[in-house]
Structure formats: C-alpha cells, structure tokens
Amino acid sequence: MSKKLTADTAAAPASFEEAMAELAQLVSQMEAGQLPLEASVAAYQRGSALVKFCAGQLDKVESQVKVLEGDMLKPFADADEAAQ
Fold it and tell me: Closest by alpha carbon to 56, among 19, 27, 5?
C-alpha cells in the first residue's frame, strides 16, 4: 500500500541526509509504479521540493568551504600526491 503525502511529510526535512532518504524512497515508489496518478504528481512535487532543499544545503556548505579555503576551492589531492 502506498504512503500518502500529508502535511507532516510535506514539512521541511531536518537534514540533508533525511531529504536524500525521502527522495530515494519517492523515486523507488514512482519507478515501481506503486502510486496512482494523483499520488505520482504529489510525489513529483515533493521530490522537486526536496531537490531544491538539497541544492540549497549544498550551496551553503560550498560557501562555508570557500570561506575556509580563502574563497578558492581547491581540488582534493590524489592519494599518491598526499603521500608525498
């Protein structure tokens, strides 16, 4: 039986990880064809909101990293380069 989207599940997620988990669940349900048309549209809308939330979280983290790195993102060093 499919889980209906309610006001409780439409609330902003508590964390990036929670949003990603909910998004993965929605995608699985939609790919499996478990949802009727109206529920699929609601799931798509919720998924879109979750993607926007995650993108915002990633932007915030990127800004924090830029501050820590002096406004210049640096590529991660390869394991070989780090050993030298």
Answer: 19
User: What does the domain layout of the chain look like in residue ranges?
Assistant: 16-83
Convert the pLDDT of each residue in 10-35 to its tens digit: 788 999 999 999 999 999 999 999 88
CA distance 3 to 68: 42
Contacts of 30 (CB under 8 A, 6+ apart): 40, 43, 44, 47
Confidence (pTM) = 0.68
Q: Per CATH, which fold does 16-83 belong to?
A: Helix Hairpins (1.10.287)
